[in-house]
Automatic annotation (TrEMBL):
The keyword Transcription applies. Residues 163-236 form the HTH crp-type domain. It comes from the Bacteria. This is Fumarate/nitrate reduction transcriptional regulator Fnr. It comes from Pseudomonas zhanjiangensis. InterPro entries: cNMP-bd_dom, cNMP-bd_dom_sf, Env_Response_Regulators, HTH_CRP, RmlC-like_jellyroll, WH-like_DNA-bd_sf, WH_DNA-bd_sf. Keywords: DNA-binding, Transcription, Transcription regulation. Residues 30-100 form the Cyclic nucleotide-binding domain. Pfam families: cNMP_binding, HTH_Crp_2. SMART domains: cNMP (SM00100), HTH_CRP (SM00419).
Amino acid sequence: MSSAGDLPLSGMAHKAQMTCHDCPLRHFCLPARLGEEEVARLERIIRRNRPLQKGEHLFRAGEPVQQIYALRSGSLKNYLLDQDGTEQITGFVLPGELVGIDGFGRSTFPGYAMALETSMACTIPLAELEELAGAIPNLRKQLLNILGRELHEEHEHLSHTHESAEQRLALFLLNLSSRFSKRGLSALNFILPMSRGEIGNYLGLTTETISRLFTRYRQQGLIDSQGREVHLLDVKALCGLCATPADTTPSGLQAG
């Protein structure tokens, strides 16, 4: 079902020595609003990490907040653990997105970030970033923009918890589609980096419910899927599943 134009997330920005200037994801990340000289100043404080393997943590709850991260390739899940050790997934991170910014204003990270596949992240020391943001207004604006977007997305996710299971999964697929599209990947054909169980955990649904919904969507001609490969066949109908008078198609994705 994959086409030649489809790329896995792990194939993006994979060169170990790639700089911010060369990175194709720079327009999502901190350099988005910066000029060339400002990008060079940011580049000097960034460290490149070794690849994370699937199941390896980028950070854990309770570790000191001394840096944040920008994901270069692969994908991560953010999650919390309750008092009984039960995992609650709070989000999925794609290339070009910052990781650990929920630690701003805290002494330790409140949650965990774990690789869903082989992934690479850039480390950005927080003290040096704060100092640089004080000297570069456009960097400060970009940080505020990213923080605002994170808060908005969290609010959006919480606002959909009262909706039906069918609506929640449709919104999830459309949101992923839009995010893939913005990264130059196919909006209609993609590979899910997360499992059915992880999708269910994030959406507050059981794995069995997610599997039934995938089957129903296939039977209705909305999608085709095989394993983690998904092909959106009828975006307009998917949008219709979750539409309310105030709803719009997710940014970057056309319903036609």
